[in-house]
Here is the input.
Amino acid sequence: MHHVVVERWSRGSSPLHMRDARSKLGALLVFLIAVSTTSPRAQLAFAGYATLLLAALFAARLPLLSVLTRAALVLPFSATFALITWWAGDPARAVSLAEKSFLSGLAVLLTIATTPWNDLVHALGWMGVPRFLLLVIQFVYRYLFVISEQAQHMRLAAISREGARRARSVRFRAATGAVGVLFARSWERAEGIHRAMLARGFTGHFLSLERPHFHAADILFFFAAASAAVTVRLAL
Amino acid sequence: MHIPDGFLSPPVWVTLDLASAPAVAILARRAQQGTDTSGIPLLGVMGAFVFAAQMINFPVGPGTSGHLVGSALLSMVVGPTAAAIVMTAILAIQAFVFQDGGIMALGANVFNMALAGVLAGYLPYRLWSRHWRSAAIFAGGFLSVLTSACLALTQLLFSGVRMPPKIIWISIGLFAVSAIIEGAITLGAVRAIERLQPSSTEAWGPATQVRGSRVIGIVAIAAIVLVAGGVLFASAAPDGVEKLASQLGLKDQVPAWLHSPFAYYEARGFESMWIRKATAGLAGLVLIFFACSALGRYFARQRSA
Here is the structure.
């Protein structure tokens, strides 16, 4: 599955990987606000943002083509809307819709691909996201791939069993049954997980061995990245 | 239905972020109060289950298939408060890890799917499930998808994304079809779950009875904030509303009071528009941050007291 790729990317050791997650998240937010408030006609500014992201991509030593392809996943959706907008007689906005969504998606991907998941969640907590929500996010992320794999096995099994062409209603019922079975198994799994967690002394929050520190380089990175985005926004 | 970044105009996403952030903070607190430590892995695994259940294809028409969205199903199984938190977690992961939906637009997506979608899915179930159980479950699935999709469309139109009226009506038709599919899948899935695990739909039942009414209050407050913000925005940019009306073919019905007398002067100050937009964006983010941290601190103090 493709998520594994991003997790592998996030364990790199480039200068960008070394920065504190909080400074990267802050820079990301400033960048996204700058892109979001750019006028649809400011094509130079979009070129400027693209240059900034490309520079960051090189600094992060990430595979350029694979990152760009992954970020392009947003394009089918935005291209549809761009076409409709073009058709409605607003070509400038149409082009900017595609550009803004691609640049924003690329910026998020770049942040994710240079920040280990746990550091990112920690940074979100530092920014004031409720702890309970973060715990749920951690658990969803942890079991997402486990249960998805289970769902894929069930899908494969269903396809194998469907040798003779069945009526649509039968297949529909079979699919609802699959959802039911998946639910029951997930519920049991959750109970098992909870027992295991209690056995290991879980008290309601995760403990982390490392405590992230804000270095001077992190502050410098935040201000450099943020001011670069703001400069592009204001000057071009 | 996941709105990416770059589609919503700053006033729209700032308003929705401001409405969603405190609502989620309060709901997280409520969900936490309603459970011991067993609730955390349960909600997490339920979120993973919804993610995975979206992979199961349902044959719908010739050559087409649909899949579950899950807001309504979740609200019926774990209650609306917990369902809103689980959906928020799913949307956050989709935005960060899968680039499905934007970060600035996360407030809008949370509002559409995790708050309004869950509530629209839960209300019919809560009101009618005693007498017309199947109809209530179907209506829950139907309404949750229709509400989320129509909200997303409205937000796009408010942001100035231009669509010909024909396209708008076609997309509303498509939303209705996918809403029917969601209703049918939700009904089938809840039935299957009850056969396999009879206790599960009531596991969180007693607690949600109390919490349900509070959720309605919270979302109502969020809706009021949203409407207030929308009105402010509409009065600041009256041509947006006019454009929307003319796109829907309602141009002649626009009441006279919508034609702001300041429209001409607004247009003259267009050059300074970006300054206002940028300030609005920054101010919005600062406000969200302070609202969240203030709420967090307030709750933390309550907990320790």
Chain A touches chain B through 90 residues (CB under 8 Å).
